[in-house]
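re: ur msg from earlier - yeah i can do the 3-methyl-2-oxobutanoic acid complex, just paste it... oh wait u already did. ok heres what im feeding in:
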Amino acid sequence: MNDSINAAITIPAVRQRKVRRGGERLVMLTAYDAPGARMADEAGVDILLVGDTVAMVVLGYEDTLQLSVADMEHHTAAVARARPTALVVADLPWLSYHVSAEETIRNAARLIRAGAQAVKLEGGRKRLAMVEALVNSEIPVMGHVGLTPQSVHAMGGFRVQARTAESAQRLLEAAKALEHAGCFAIVLEGVPAAVAGLVTAGVSIPTIGIGAGPDCDGQVLVYHDLLGIEQALRPRFVRQYANLADETVRAIRSFAKDVRSGSFPAADESYALGKEAAEALGIRA
Ligand code: KIV
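and the outut:
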């Protein structure tokens, strides 16, 4: 038997996946519930990210800042119940890793106990102490730099970052520092493609891009964007592979029509009563 077939994807295996070392590009997709995780896993993604984008694409918030550790725990547990082969990484929500190392470790541990194998947190140099504290507690950490949505107010909106030579250099230094602090991979979000290429060349852990061009070691998309479920916002980096929003509305319209016309449910969609009981009740079986 070949042990590598359907073997769970591990942190050391992900850490090795550098394109320049001959590694295959990493495929990461967000997942927020068990059926989504099951389908993404069946499709062969490497990493399921229980992203705090759940706040926007599932829970209806305008940004990710309202999300609690309990919310993330709930969605992480749902994804883990699908028992995916993919690595499960859960986002630490805003303010769950900013106050103290002890609080950070306790919050991350809740997500690990809910079923994640690693956590992701946003930010560069300011977060190094927390990354080190987590890694020292045996909690693997994925970094996230560039456009960091939890900093939406500080950034003045969801804006592409690192557009000047100085800020690109700062981003490169931040990525190197995160690698040094122990991150096993780094998400690069919303940065010019050339800057993502520079960062990818400058670190020996894989970079996973979103809105960061083709030169990263992997790519991530939000589940609802890829499938065309969430169409309110359509950033240029989203490639939509299906249009489930239209398909879903079409299906629900058909259901409503069939209910109103009385054609649903049909006899073969209903349960029959035994002949004897029907006769006793004086009704049709
Ligand atoms: O929360 C999320 O979905 C993310 C991805 C966009 C990288 O952080």
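cool cool. The radius of gyration is 23 Å. ping me if u need the other ligands too
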